[in-house]
């Protein structure tokens, strides 16, 4: 019996030993599997970002290729537009050149026409002055004093006021009031002058010499004045000296008014002859005389010269410079595009 139990005990010990060994093997396998799984997790984690980066790079490369195509298309459009703009600018410059040439020709023609007009005006003024050289004007004679015959009135007026022999024949061809509207009834209004034409200019000169030599001619107690019958243009120019003459009289400086519209001033130790009122007032101002300055009037030729069209530089040269600038910018843009393509 005891032998039987000992055999059973040995068998059970072997079974327990086998079970223990089996359990230890399972634990070892589980431990190995756990450690292997732990070592495998970082590899899988590292494998996912690489695939993501590859996908992103592929998308970026695709977008860059599309951008490159779009840039090339836009570059071609810009080149085409620049070419069209350049053509239009060239056509415009050609037309501007034609307009400028036409304007210059017109200005030259107008300048010559202005010169001819000025010459003709001087000739007409001279002819008008010659046609009036036998005439005199009598100023400040009251309206209506001439009565029914102005010619007889003037003949008697000249002989009485200038103390000319009654038997002397003055040879008055005609006499009339100035061709202007008669003044209103106000006594302060100046009467129209009387124009008298003589047969000979010598008679006219003698009458003026006597009138200016008397230093004051009176009619019914009022002063009257004798002077040349100047053309309206000359008369206007002579009126421009009125302020200068007034100052010269105040300063007691002797002067004369030569024909047609000049001023001769006898300064102390010097005599000056002025051709225009602007020249006279400028010189008198520099001498310290309190006279207002008169600005010289521009002639038609001077106005054309002042406002003439002026070309700035060469139109062809500016076109070439513009084309070179465009070419340089296109080359720079092409270099930048090529470098970007190489990077891609």
Structure description:
The longest helix has 130 residues, at 2-131. The radius of gyration is 58 Å and the shape is rod-shaped. The strands form two sheets. It has a five-stranded antiparallel β-sheet with strand order 2-3-1-5-4. It has a three-stranded antiparallel β-sheet with strand order 6-7-8, with helices on one face. The protein has helices spanning 2-131, 150-161, 201-214, 232-239, 242-250, 277-286, 300-306, 315-343, and strands at 135-139, 172-177, 194-198, 217-219, 222-228, 255-256, 263-267, 270-274. By secondary structure, it is an alpha+beta fold. The chain contains eight helices and eight strands.
Biggest sheet overview: 5 strands, antiparallel
Number of strands: 8
User: Quick check: average pLDDT?
Assistant: 79
How do the strands of the widest beta sheet line up side by side?
A: 2-3-1-5-4
H and E string: HEHEEHEEHHEEEHHH
Shape estimate: rod-shaped
Q: Which regions contain 5 or more consecutive residues with pLDDT less than 50?
A: 1-9, 17-22, 33-47
Structure, briefly:
With 344 residues, the chain is of the alpha+beta class. The chain has helices at 2-131, 150-161, 201-214, 232-239, 242-250, 277-286, 300-306, 315-343; strands spanning 135-139, 172-177, 194-198, 217-219, 222-228, 255-256, 263-267, 270-274. The chain is 64% helix and 11% strand.
